[in-house]
Amino acid sequence: MGRAPINQLYYITHKDNVPSILQRGIMSHEMIVSENIPFTPIYDAQIVKKRHDMKVPDGRSLWSFANVYFQVRNAMLYRVIFFSESTGLNDIVVLAVGANILNRNDIFISTGNAASQYSDILHITKGRKLISQIRRATDKEWWKDVDGSKREMMAECLVPEIIPPEFVRTIYVASHNAANTVKTTLDQLKLIATPEVVPEPKMFFQPSRKETLTPRLAVIDGDMFFSRMHTLTVSVNCVGVMGKGLASRVKYQFPDVYVFYQDSCRSYGLQMGKPVLYKREASLDYELADEPSTLTNANLETWFLLFATKQHWRQRADIQGIEKGLQWLVDNYEKEGIKSLAIPALGCGLGRLDWHDVGPLMCKYLRTLDIPVEIYLPAERKVPDELTSKGFLLR
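Request: output the structure for the sequence above.
Response:
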């Protein structure tokens, strides 16, 4: 088939299962049960049963296959990390499987979640032509139900019975602590060769850096839209244009927020120093997690705070107007019902203000809020460690 369009595929499992996998391979659920192999589950029983009832074109159940994903940052991993009742973040590992598994002639390819009625499951002789298309569909930072991307991001390669252990190339974990735990386990196995263990927080929807300033205030380097905070703040202008940066992502990921924003600009409800709160009756958890109807501890709603940092999109951000907006937030967050808040570095990046000035100003006001607050650092450039310290930001 020529050069594979991807480098690796991914298998999600519990760290306790790693020793067995490295010795025996990644087994199908049917094989694990029939051979009575001890394992620690990470999926809900209803999800496992649903896969048992789904068939591939030759009539076999999905239980007969070991499944690996083309993109691991998907709705299934989101569910496993945030909504498992018995498994913590540092218990989850992702095994990278070599893309040469796609050279086998006995595998199947699904165009989305294999358990979905909307996905096609094709034998590799037909599915091989779709691999580059699947790659494009899964090469995203976020997904939605309405356009099918949530399902497509969970496209799978289905391997009959077992993926031999030599196909496992790398073990990804969420933190250095988790890496040390897994490495200790591997040392005890005394195998001739073991895969590299790599901490990769972003893969697990975690920030790459977090500085805790007070019990309720932290500075974060990461993706604000995976923060799971009750209210997400978006820096905007007052003329209804969402052209670049976080605002542009909101425009496409949350079109209803964009419509509300434009209406607020037309009615002059959104002004410098006077943010507007969109109390959206929808939960980002429900949008991002697989099988959302079965979630028991999800956020019931995700609100958006539209915070004007400049009058016109062509202008430089106005730090005096930002300070007035922060004062509005201090005066109104309790009355408005904001339970927790994620907020970007206001006016930095595209607004051309400097974190050296904005960071301490934001912390001056936000440290007084009696709710959890996360400030997200500018994505355009790395902020030096000394400018995220308590000594600098809380001076």
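The mean pLDDT is 93.
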